[in-house]
From TrEMBL, chain A:
It comes from the Bacteria. Pfam families: PadR. InterPro entries: Tscrpt_reg_PadR_N, WH-like_DNA-bd_sf, WH_DNA-bd_sf. This is PadR family transcriptional regulator.
From TrEMBL, chain B:
Its main location: membrane. It is found in: Cell membrane. Residues 197-307, 639-749 form the ABC3 transporter permease C-terminal domain. This is ABC3 transporter permease C-terminal domain-containing protein. It comes from Prauserella muralis.
UniProtKB/TrEMBL annotation, chain C:
One of its GO terms (cellular component) is plasma membrane. SMART domains: AAA. It comes from Prauserella muralis. This is Macrolide ABC transporter ATP-binding protein. SUPFAM superfamilies: P-loop containing nucleoside triphosphate hydrolases. PANTHER family: ABC TRANSPORTER RELATED, IMPORT ATP-BINDING PROTEIN. One of its GO terms (molecular function) is ATP binding. Keywords: ATP-binding, Nucleotide-binding, Transport.
Length: 174, 759, 224
């Protein structure tokens, strides 16, 4: 999971201090693994270097913890690209997907599109597997079926989430 | 408490538990109507039976008993005559002294010159003065109902004198003989018996069929209840309660219908037979049996419907899936019926109505029950042999092969009625055609016979001759002769002008004797036989003189004179007839004078019991005309009712079937099966059993009629009313078309594809 | 690739319910298209409109550039019988007829003699591996067998388009897989286009492309 993209996404709602970003991240996504401050600042430094964020002024008595960051246009484009790029269909990617959906909702983008894009990617993978299955032997069939069933589970989650987007939106954007 | 709750669930389901509420309600209504009508008819029959029993009791109670007894007797002489084809009975009474028995319905014996009449006769007197003139005396009272068979009976008691010394009257010490059913006319018994069968059998069949309507839906329902946790026993109770609702409603409806129809029933008359409205009440044991019959029948058929079914939570399975109808006993029933209709050949009985009637009724009943019982079996056999054909035909036939039971059960009801109706109609038509034939051939409207007592013979002749409408009147005495040779021999004593009316005579003068045929050749001597009192008695001898000449009958005369083998003028037959034989006059009336006969009767009225007038024309006029009309009404009514019920049943059945088969129908229509093919398959599906039914019914009906005609038709040819049979068949065909047409909207909606939606 | 069947701007309401609110669809010869969507989204109604079974309130359906709803009812019925084939979730076989007679039914309705129709039907049943069920009534065969007979019946006329509405909906996964692979394989061999309505992604995975339906509206899902 890309912490950089996540922090960028969180910044889209407005400039924040580093510690605010950490708190926001932990609150929403870091339930089991809260971010270290070091991780936050090293990531922010990288983003700054790449021109995706800028420093938006600092409080008196400066220090890194007093700095406030804002997202740049390039940063916005980068988040956009990341959100609309499907994750490679693999097992247990709900966490990434969940993050994408919440971020899309937070930033006012279409979470529906995120899900739909992912769905198509999944379905395409399933189609490929199905074709292999039709042309292959029983071993192929069994292997493909294993993958197909897992992908199907993802897809079910995608569909369920799609059906619950409104509910989720009211929770993440009170 | 639990069984009661099960019943409550069943009641709830029957009233509104159906997936298609209208079909459920329709089924309930149909069951109620079916059971209601049969209950009403059975109650009516029971009531009529009790009315007839009362009637029989009353007629038996007024019958003169031949038991000897002490004390004063009353002398009784009964005279019967006719008005408009109806019989008028006048009983002349003369007591020996005080304490003489009084017949029921009279307060006291009428004095000579007094007339006590039945209310119906009193009404007739008021309406027809000419009728009143036929009877001398003053009307002093009316006969009360306990002395009459029915309200329409034309009956009178007249006081008389001179009866005591007349051999025509018998002394009576008691009135009342044991009551017996055999007093009823065979026509009444036959109508009642066959009518009950014809009306009730199809209704019973419908009750049985109605429980099968929407069967699949019912099964689905029961299995859903099973899923909800009902035990097998509970299912049985619930199904019973469901059936009972219709039956109880039907029984109530039947009771109501009976109460409403009772006044009409009381007016029913078959021939001269009428009943008192107050008597039209079924005896209570019979009423209880009838009222229980509907519910018991419905329960029975519901249980039978569950037989072989295992209601499981996830559906209904048939324990023995394709129930092959074991049919051997079905043709047996029909065969037994046919044998019963050949009683003289099979059971060695005679051909007398009294003897064969039980056989005929039982046989007809067996046949009319047996044929519908045979129908489902027959349909199944036939349909199994059908193959191929157009897709529509194939669909219909396959459907029938899968379940021919239900439609043919409905049709079976129609078959029973049609067969019965065709049989009765044919018998009735043959009988009335025969009666008509006899009428025109035999009855001479311009001829009357007057029987008088010997002392007033001359007076009577003078009175008759004085009537303007009388062309000729002469003494006319037919006397039986005892002869060694086979064949009847009779002596006719009459003056020359009378003889010349019937015979070609060489020449005639008083004192001449003629022979007709060779039975009684000149020179032979014979004993005369007279019927006075109880039986034949020997009278004086008569010798045919050696100089008797031959005479021949005028052609075209087959009246009583055709039996005469020897003709004698009064001068040649002195001393004949012997004492006790009533002198007879023959009267030729003016054929153009319609009232001549009434005038003769009026002229003889002062003679009272001493003269009685009869006319062949009156006797031959079929007084059963009313009866035939009533029967025809019952036949047409019954046939119409049954066809209508059959139509409704078929419709409900088909509606249920369509709703059960919504999905396949919709799928077929979606896949491009034209609706016309589906409609035609429905048509075939209704037509095949119906055509088969009509064919079987017509065959069975004509068969019964032919067998009946053989026994009671006295050789009369069987007359088949083609119009009647044809219109019944046409009615059945129209019915099928109508039902199919009525099903089309249902079919249209079923194929309207909403049915394809998953829910 | 030219479109075989095209629908544009379809609207359809059933009483108060809007089943379709502007749906479009297109399928080319030999293509297999899955129509997906949650229950009540209108996908079955879309199929019924495409097949000329249900007339839409607005919009057109064209088969080989002919307006399907400009045809008479009889012509449309004949079109469905000759050019289209149908497989539904269940209940499409006529219970009274044997499996063979069921399969032969569309041919016989088309006027073919019984013997010829049944010979062809037997062939179709052989292809789907259900020839041994020929004489049995549909009530006595399993769900999967029944669907294969239904498939044989749908394909016996060599239709251009096969409409399949949840064809595996009533089957377990193994039988579902069998029916689907037979369906796809046979359709590919014959070049039959398939409109496959399903809510099951594993069934949809047999398709070339997917059309989503939501709230009566279609969305072409890019074959990413």
């Amino acid at each position: 999971m890309s912490i950089g993209h996540t922090l960028l996404g969180l910044l889209e709602r407005g400039p924040r201090h580093g510690y605010e970003l950490k708190r926001a991240y932990d609150e929403r996504f870091g339930l089991e693994r809260p971010l270290h401050y070091g991780q936050v600042y090293s990531t922010l430094a990288r983003l700054l270097r790449n021109g995706l964020v800028t420093e938006a002024g600092s409080q008196p008595g400066s220090g890194p913890e007093r700095k406030s960051y804002a997202i740049t246009d390039a940063g916005i484009t980068d988040v956009e690209r990341w959100l609309t790029t499907p994750e490679n269909p693999e097992l247990y990617l709900q966490n990434t997907l969940y993050t994408k959906v919440v971020l899309a909702l937070l930033s006012g983008r279409s979470a529906q599109d995120v899900l739909e894009t992912q769905r198509s990617a999944h379905l395409k993978a399933m189609r490929t597997l199905t074709t292999r299955k039709l042309d292959g032997d029983l071993a192929d069939t069994l292997i493909c079926d294993h993958a197909l069933f897992h992908l199907e589970a993802d897809l079910r989650w995608l569909e369920l989430t799609a059906a619950r987007l409104d509910e989720l939106a009211s929770e993440v954007r009170p | 408490m639990k069984p009661l709750q099960d019943l409550a669930v069943g009641v709830r389901l029957a009233v509104g538990g159906s997936r298609t509420p209208r079909a459920g309600l329709l089924r309930l209504t149909l069951t109620a109507i079916g059971i209601g009508l049969s209950t009403a008819v059975l109650l009516g029959v029971a009531a009529l039976l009790s009315a007839l029993a009362d009637r029989t009791d009353r007629t038996a109670a007024r019958e003169a008993s031949d038991q000897p007894g002490g004390g004063a007797a009353v002398h009784v002489h009964t005279d019967r005559s006719y008005v408009d084809g109806e019989q008028i009975t006048v009983t002349y009474l003369e007591p020996e002294g005080p304490g003489a028995p009084v017949p029921p319905g009279l307060a006291a014996l009428p004095e000579p010159g007094e007339l006590v009449v039945s209310p119906a006769l009193a009404t007739r007197f008021a309406e027809q003065p000419a009728l009143r003139e036929r009877f001398a005396g003053e009307v002093t009272g009316t006969v009360s109902p306990e002395g009459l068979a029915g309200p329409a009976e034309l009956w009178a008691y007249a006081g008389a004198n001179g009866l005591r010394s007349s051999p025509d009257a018998s002394p009576v010490h008691h009135f009342g003989v044991p009551s017996s059913w055999s007093d009823l006319s065979p026509l009444v018994l036959f109508t009642a018996g066959l009518g009950v069968v014809v009306l009730v059998v199809p209704l019973l069949v419908f009750v049985a069929a109605s429980s099968r309507i929407a069967g699949a839906e019912r099964e689905a329902r029961l299995s859903a209840i099973r899923l909800a946790g009902a035990g097998a026993g509970q299912i049985r109770r619930i199904a019973s309660a469901e059936a009972l609702v219709g039956a109880v409603a039907g029984t109530a409806l039947g009771g109501l219908l009976f109460v409403l129809a009772r006044p009409l029933l009381a007016q029913l008359r078959v021939g001269d037979t009428t009943v008192y409205p107050a008597d039209v009440v079924p005896s209570w044991p019979l009423a209880v049996v009838v009222l229980l019959l509907g519910p018991v029948l419905a329960l029975g058929s519901a249980w039978l419907g569950l037989r072989g079914l295992v209601v499981e939570p996830l559906g209904v399975t048939r324990r023995t899936r394709p129930v092959r109808r074991r049919g051997w006993w079905r043709p047996l029933l029909v065969l037994l019926g046919v044998l019963m209709l050949l009683p003289d050949l099979v059971f060695g009985t005679g051909k007398r109505p009294g003897e064969v009637l039980p056989f005929l009724l039982l046989g007809a009943a067996l046949l009319l029950v047996g044929v519908p019982v045979l129908m489902p079996w027959l349909t199944e056999r036939l349909v199994d042999r059908l193959h191929g054909g157009s897709p529509a035909w194939q669909l219909a036939i396959r459907r029938l092969q899968l379940d021919s039971g239900t439609p043919s059960r409905v049709v079976a009801g129609v078959v029973a009625v049609l067969a019965g109706v065709v049989a009765m109609q044919t018998i009735v038509t043959s009988a009335s055609a025969e009666a008509g034939r006899r009428d025109t051939e035999r009855a001479d409207r311009a001829l009357a016979t007057v029987e008088v007592t010997a002392p007033v013979a001359g007076d009577a002749l003078a009175r008759v001759r004085a009537v303007p409408g009388v062309e000729q009147a002469d003494p006319w005495q037919l006397i039986d002769l005892d002869t060694d040779q086979a064949g009847p021999a009779m002596l006719l004593v009459a003056p020359c002008p009378a003889l010349e009316r019937g015979f070609r005579l060489p020449a005639c003068a008083d004192g001449d004797v003629f022979t007709v045929g060779g039975q009684t050749p000149p020179g032979s001597t014979h004993r005369t036989i007279s019927y006075v009192g109880d039986g034949p008695a020997e009278g004086p001898r008569f010798t045919v003189p050696g100089d008797a000449r031959a005479a021949t009958l005028h052609t075209g005369h087959d009246r009583t004179e055709s039996y005469a083998t020897v003709l004698a003028t009064p001068g040649a037959a002195r001393g004949l007839p012997g004492p006790g034989v009533r002198p007879t006059l023959r009267v030729w009336l003016d054929p153009g004078d319609a009232h001549a006969l009434d005038e003769v009767r009026a002229a003889l009225a002062p003679l009272g019991w001493r003269a009685s007038v009869s006319s062949e024309a009156e006797l031959a006029a079929p007084s059963e005309d009313d009866g035939l009309a009533v029967m025809r009404g019952i036949l047409y009514g019954g046939a119409g009712l049954t066809l209508l019920l059959a139509a409704v049943s078929l419709l409900v059945l088909a509606a249920g079937q369509i709703s059960e088969r919504r999905r396949p129908l919709a799928a077929m229509s979606a896949a491009g099966v034209p609706r016309s093919v589906l409609a035609r398959s429905l048509l075939w599906q209704n037509t095949v059993p119906m055509v088969l039914g009509v064919l079987v019914a017509t065959g069975a009906g004509l068969g019964v009629a032919a067998l009946f005609a053989r026994i009671i038709g006295e050789g009369a040819p069987m007359v088949v009313n083609g119009v009647f049979v044809g219109s019944l068949a046409a009615g059945a065909v129209l019915l099928v078309l109508g039902v199919t047409a009525a099903m089309l909207p249902g079919l249209r909606s079923a194929t309207r594809l909403e049915a394809l939606r998953a829910e | 690739m030219t479109a075989l069947l095209t629908a544009t701007g379809l609207h359809k309401t059933f009483g108060p319910t809007d089943a379709l609110t502007g749906a479009s669809f297109q399928i080319s010869a030999g293509e297999i298209v899955a129509v997906m969507g949650p229950s009540g989204s209108g996908k079955s109604t879309l199929l019924h409109c495409l097949a000329g079974i249900v007339r839409p309130d607005a919009g057109t359906v064209a088969y080989r550039d002919r307006d399907v709803f400009a045809l008479s009812d009889a012509e449309r019925t004949a079109l469905r019988r000759t050019e289209f084939g149908f497989v539904f979730q269940f209940g499409q076989l006529v219970p009274e007829l044997s499996c063979l007679e069921n399969t032969a039914l569309p041919l016989r309705l088309g006027g073919l003699r019984r013997r010829a129709a049944e010979a062809k039907a037997r062939e179709a049943m052989e292809r789907l591996g259900v020839a041994d069920l020929a004489g049995k009534p549909p009530g006595e065969v399993s769900g999967g067998q029944g669907q294969r007979v239904a498939l044989a019946r749908a394909l016996v006329t060599s239709p251009s388009v096969l409409f399949a509405d949840e064809p595996t909906g009533a089957l377990d996964s193994l039988n579902g897989e069998r029916v689907m692979s037979l369906l796809v394989r046979t359709a590919r061999e014959d070049g039959t286009a398939v409109v496959l309505v399903t809510h099951d992604v594993r069934v949809a995975a047999y398709s070339d492309r997917e059309v989503g339906v939501r709230d009566g509206r279609t969305r072409q899902v890019a074959a990413a």
